[in-house]
Amino acid sequence: QGEYFVSENCTRRCRCEANGQMVCFPLFCGEDEVCKIQNGQRDCYPASTDLCHIYGDPHYSTFDGKLHHFQGSCNYTVVTGCDNSSVGFTVTTRNKHRGSPTWTALNSVALSMEGLHIALRQNKAVYINGALASLPASPAPGVTVSLSGSYVRVATKLGLQLQFNGDHELLVRVSEKHKGKLCGLCGTYTGRQQDDFMRPDGVVVPDFNEFGASWMVPDDEWPCDPAPSPPVSCSPSEEEAAKKQCASLTEPGGPFQPCHAVLPPQTYFESCVYDQCATHGSTEQLCNDLGAYATACAEAGVALGDWSAGTVCAPPEACKFACTFDDDFCEWVQAGYSSIDWIRNRGPTPTPNTGPSSDHTTGDGYYIYLEGSDALPGFVAQLVSPVCPSEGPHCF
């Protein structure tokens, strides 16, 4: 008496009355709710979300957590509706070789919806229906495009969110209400990894290259070789070196340890080792992989802080904008192809005509000048500054 239950598809809520009769009422889940069981009770609950993470050269961690390393160099569908289900969106990506025939990386991302096409390109350039866009933008009801930290973020009311870092990393987050309705390189989102490698014809295949190639999207503007890249090979010594480079991902007490219980690092470690073999120990790729795990941890609710401190991935020190050459050359070095020399000096100069106003003869501070009496047209004298990590423009 007084107890109630919800029908299997959450279309009715029924209650047992005192007279032993059962009374049922229509039930409708809200737009952001799904029918599921929580704590043993079926009902309409807020929909959760799940993530497909694409990064590196490239690696795909599907919605169901399956990892694959498809290296195609064409355009591919990563998320779309399958089995004639209409989810209202399709996400495609374009891959490109980056200096090697054996591996590719993400080059751009496209979102297609009814009457809307959004392209996310390198360096965070955004094109909406073919026109370069300024951000933030709201190109359609319920759709926003904005900068969020180091990502371009696209949010929709259809239960889809994209985050692209303008280089190699894409995060595709979808609502639980799409569970079992999706296909593409991000998998089927059924809760089972076994059917993630499903081709457009509905056939599940064991080989990720066959699976990946089946989702190619022809594009006359992007000529590519549909044949899969040759497999990455790694000698035992190279593999051992790669594992050492990537070890910080799994080290107990390391910078990533706080995330291990929430998001096990093994698949990211495997991807990191794969990349170190493919790129012959690239530091840039190592940092991309470590950063990808840090991003995934943040998405899972674990903030790792400055994980790069003390590693090869740590950003260089701040630029010395206030340098006056009073102490030293401020890490500026003379270019090896200079024809005449830069000299740092203090006090009177060797000639009375030195300086822009012939006034550097009695100064107390240090200055730099060019020394040489035989300069000819075409001679080069150049000082090269240290790498400056700060975003510009800057005036010196």
How would you sum up this structure in a few lines?
With 396 residues, the chain is of the alpha+beta class. It has helices spanning 208-214, 236-246, 266-278, 283-299, and strands at 4-6, 12-16, 22-26, 33-38, 41-46, 49-55, 59-61, 67-68, 75-81, 90-97, 104-113, 116-120, 126-128, 131-132, 137-140, 143-148, 151-156, 160-164, 170-175, 182-183, 216-217, 333-334, 341-346, 366-371, 383-384.
Question: How would you describe this structure to a colleague?
Answer:
Residues 321-396 form the MAM domain. It comes from Arenaria interpres (Ruddy turnstone). Keywords: Disulfide bond, Glycoprotein. With 396 residues, the chain is an alpha+beta fold. It has four domains: 3-46, no CATH class; 49-214, no CATH class; 236-300; 316-395, no CATH class. It is built from four helices and 25 strands. It has helices at residues 208-214, 236-246, 266-278, 283-299, and strands spanning 4-6, 12-16, 22-26, 33-38, 41-46, 49-55, 59-61, 67-68, 75-81, 90-97, 104-113, 116-120, 126-128, 131-132, 137-140, 143-148, 151-156, 160-164, 170-175, 182-183, 216-217, 333-334, 341-346, 366-371, 383-384. The strands form six sheets. The protein has an eight-stranded antiparallel beta sheet, with helices on one face. The radius of gyration is 29 Å and the shape is elongated. The N and C termini lie far apart (81 Å). The mean pLDDT is 86.
